[in-house]
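quick one before i forget lol
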Amino acid sequence: VNGCESERAVAHITVAAPPAFNIAADRYVVCINDTVYLSSTGTSGYTGYVWTLPFADQVIYGSLMSPGVAVKCTTEGYQLFTLQVKDSLNVCSSTDTLQVHVVPLPDAQINTPHDVCLGTPMTLALGAHSDNADTFFWYIDQDPLMQSSYISLLSRNASSGGPFQISWNTPGTY
């Protein structure tokens, strides 16, 4: 005022950059009730984490406030997982979203007689299967079909779904 000037006020301002990160998953397609492991990448030096999960999914390792979590996926379909990360000053935040496809368990039924005579040839085959079932593993008790001592494999189809011609070597209930 009138050519006079006061001392200048000094302001110290820290300008923080928003966190730069992405969500990573151990897999992007999981079966219903399986676990997906989610983590943040590029989050060094950040202190605030907040996960948002699909309804009904459960954290089985970590917490909603940690940089990584293991989540039990309980709802079929494309599910969105969101992570908000805050900088160390708690001034800036960034959000990333990741989509995981949760698929139903495959299903298959066996078409075979329930009672057979020892040594009599029989057919072991699929009766039906769900659309998402494409590879089949056959077991007699705990042994893979091709290694089982309980049966003789008489013939087989090249498909993992069979059919197989077998005869039983050992009486019992399997």
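fyi The chain has a mean pLDDT of 91.
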